[in-house]
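User: I'm writing a tutorial on reading structure tokens. Could you give me a worked example: one chain, its sequence, then its tokens, then a sentence or two explaining what the tokens reveal?
Assistant: Sure. Here is the example chain.
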Amino acid sequence: MKKMIEAAADGDRVAARMVLNRVCSSPKGRAVAIELPEITTPADHLAAHAAIAGRITPQDGAALCAVLETHRRAFELAAQEDRVERLEAQPHHLKAKLT
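And here are its predicted structure tokens:
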């Protein structure tokens, strides 16, 4: 490594690039431009997954699927919260009717 640094300091471009690659590695991720259908319901996720199939690398597909899965879970959580609120309101509504 010491010899590479010396060669880089002496103007060897290949050595300089190798030293810089060791010191400052390039980012692993990259932006992926892909159009997805609008997702307004959990069922729309199927169309979104179909839209990416075979159009990007498996690694990019896995990352995008993880984002879609997080989005799907948010839909699920919102639906559960809505259901809990409705169920919690029922006893109060029924109690008011009985009195």
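What the tokens reveal: The chain is about 70% helix and 0% strand. The mean pLDDT is 84.
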